[in-house]
Amino acid sequence: MREITDQEVSEIAVTAEIGAKEAYEKLAPIVKSDIIRDELIFLTREEDKHHEIISKMAEKTRLILEMLANMERNHYNILRKQYDYITRYPDIYKEEFYDQLMKDINFNF
């Protein structure tokens, strides 16, 4: 197995940020819950910030990966919270939204 280059790591990270942002942007206008829509809009802006960070710090691969892991862990926690709300209060939150989100960003809970 060959070693991955710093450039490849940066490209993978940028691609992941773009994909997540696109998923959030796709879902935000179709959700019925203002709470979930606001969270998705917040996450969209966060992905833009991550992209900017990657661009500015591409030479510091390890630091980037640690920072991104922490940021994405926070996003996971936000999404997990919404999933818990959907599960507990299905009349308020529409489950079909979460099914679509999971399909778009390939999360498995």
Q: How do the strands and helices of this protein lay out in sequence?
A:
Elements: H1 6-27, H2 34-56, H3 61-88, H4 95-105
End-to-end distance: 30 Å
What share of the residues lie within helices? over 70%
What are the secondary-structure elements, in order, as H or E?
HHHH
Please tell me the total number of domains.
Answer: 1
In what range is the share of β-strand residues? under 5%
What's the mean pLDDT score?
83
Largest sheet: none
Structural class: mainly alpha
Q: Could you give the count of β-strands?
A: 0
Low-confidence stretches: none
Please characterize this protein's 3D structure.
- Helix content is 77%, strand content 0%.
- The chain is an all-alpha fold.
- Helix 2 (34-56) packs antiparallel against helix 3 (61-88).
- The radius of gyration is 15 Å and the shape is elongated.
- The chain has one domain (6-102).
Briefly say what this structure is:
The protein is built from four helices and no strands. By secondary structure, it is mostly helical. The chain has one domain.
Feature tags:
mainly alpha; 109 residues; 4 helices
